[in-house]
Design a protein that fits this description.
This protein is an alpha+beta fold. The protein is about 45% helix and about 10% strand. The protein contains 15 helices and 14 strands. It has a 5-stranded mixed beta sheet, sandwiched between helices. It has a 3-stranded antiparallel beta sheet with strand order 4-14-11. The protein is globular, with a radius of gyration of 21 Å. The two termini are about 40 Å apart. Bound molecules: protoporphyrin IX containing FE. Protoporphyrin IX containing FE binds near residues 90, 279, 336 and 343.
Length: about 400
């Protein structure tokens, strides 16, 4: 009898495996048999993989022992450390992180995002109408990414006339898997906006970044620019989650029908989309204190990689985790992280997801996949790289 082979966790280091392999099979094996798994140094620094929901949540909730300053994403050793270390919201530790977050949190509260709902709706309508007029579109590049980028631009204070150029640059950087901070056009556009707000502040986030204080001091130019990059960079994640959500409904027409019958289910549906998509593939931390987890000894300087799609399909935390179920409650997913670094754009992500779904429902566009969806090859984010659909009338249908 042939013994079934043990899944190989080293495959998780290959971006192509995330697109065309079976990462969920590997993660399931790791959750059951090796919940804390050591990957020796190679292309990446050595690191521990965490795959269980409870363990991942515990790391997020303990920023004193698990630092973000050394980077929150795996980077090949050849590229070196993240230049945003110690400077951006994502890459700072308490107490500076709290001061920085307090300075900008006001732009992302539930109330602020609810007030933005009409802006979201009008942008979603524009994008969907243009796509319908053309008879179809690529949901990722023509609807999801522009929608979310446009909202971040709105909050930052970027002029609408500059949005499409910014979108082109962002897509260029995302497609090459490069950081936006390395894009000269993008950084110079942010620099211009920063200079304008320096002399003439307005009611936008850029003005706050330029004139606000964190820990009793103004931010440096680098801090302002890298924080803008951090916010706009989140567009990729948010766009992928929106597209993956639409794809989930195309593949589960019963769930779409249920939502259209009872739109009050939108609140639980949005969280199920976030859980299902888990568009952020991992977060990383650096260990500060020696500790033992599941019998493994972690020492200061060790890296810990938290695999979020694994946490969100952990049988210990979710009933029938591989089922897309818009009525799921409770739904304590970790798609947006947890603890003090929990996604600052969480309310915005929820508003844009619900509005986009509502607009699809209202317009009764039939979305039909016209070719199979090509998944993104990346260790950092996941979702459809392209999602070409035909758009007719009636309801969202499966196809392709
Ligand atoms: C569905 C969409 C989104 C997903 C899945 C997502 C996911 C995440 C996750 C997992 C984290 C925690 C990272 C860590 O602790 O290492 C995070 C943090 C963050 N997100 Fe999001 N995000 C989304 C949308 C957004 C949007 C729309 C924005 C901005 C407009 C944004 C901006 C940020 C920022 C600035 C942080 C760092 C917060 C901090 O460290 O205090 N995200 N996000």
């Amino acid at each position: 009898m042939v013994k079934p082979s043990t899944p190989d966790p080293t495959e998780l280091l290959d971006p192509q495996f995330h697109a065309h392999g079976a990462p969920h099979t590997v993660w399931q094996w790791m959750r059951d048999s090796a919940p804390v798994y050591w990957h020796p140094p190679g292309q990446f620094p050595g690191f521990w993989s965490f795959t269980r929901h409870q363990d991942i949540r515990a790391v997020y909730m303990d920023p004193e022992n698990y630092s973000s300053e050394g980077g929150v994403l795996l980077r090949p050793m050849a590229i070196g450390v993240d230049p945003g270390g110690g400077l951006t919201l994502a890459l700072t530790d308490p107490p500076h992180h709290r001061e920085l977050r307090a300075m900008i949190a006001n732009w992302f509260t539930d109330r602020k995002c609810r007030r933005l709902e009409e802006v979201v709706r009008s942008r979603a309508r524009e994008l969907l109408s243009a796509a319908a007029e053309a008879g179809g579109c690529d949901i990722v590049h023509d609807v999801a990414t522009p929608l979310t980028l446009s909202l971040t631009c709105h909050i930052l204070g970027v002029d609408r006339s500059e949005e499409s150029t910014l979108l082109d640059w962002a897509v260029e950087a995302f497609d090459d898997g490069r950081s936006l901070a390395a894009h000269p056009g993008f950084m110079s556009c942010m620099h211009d906006l920063m200079e304008r707000r320096l002399v003439a502040p307005e009611q936008d986030l850029m003005s706050r970044l330029v004139h606000g204080e964190a820990g009793g001091r103004l931010l440096t130019e680098d801090e302002v620019l890298l924080n803008c990059e951090n916010l706009v960079g989140a567009t990729e994640n948010a766009g992928l989650s929106l597209a993956a959500g639409i794809l989930a409904f195309i593949k589960h027409p019963d769930q779409w029908e249920r939502l259209t019958r009872d739109p009050a289910m939108m609140v639980t549906a949005v969280d199920e989309v976030l859980r299902w998509a888990s568009s952020a593939t991992h977060s990383m931390r650096t260990v500060r204190q020696r500790m033992v987890v599941h019998g493994k000894t972690l020492v200061p300087g060790d890296r810990v990689v938290l695999w979020l799609p694994s946490a969100n399909r952990d049988e210990r935390a979710f009933m029938h985790p591989h089922r897309f179920d818009i009525t799921r409650r409770p739904n304590r997913h970790l798609a947006l992280g947890a603890g003090e670094h929990v996604c600052i754009g969480a309310a915005l992500a929820r508003v844009q997801t619900s509005v986009l779904l509502q607009e699809l429902m209202r317009s009764e566009f039939a979305l039909e996949l016209i070719e199979s969806v090509s998944p993104l090859a990346s260790l950092a984010v996941n979702g459809p790289a392209r999602m070409p659909v035909r758009m007719g009338s009636a309801t969202v249908t499966a196809g392709g």
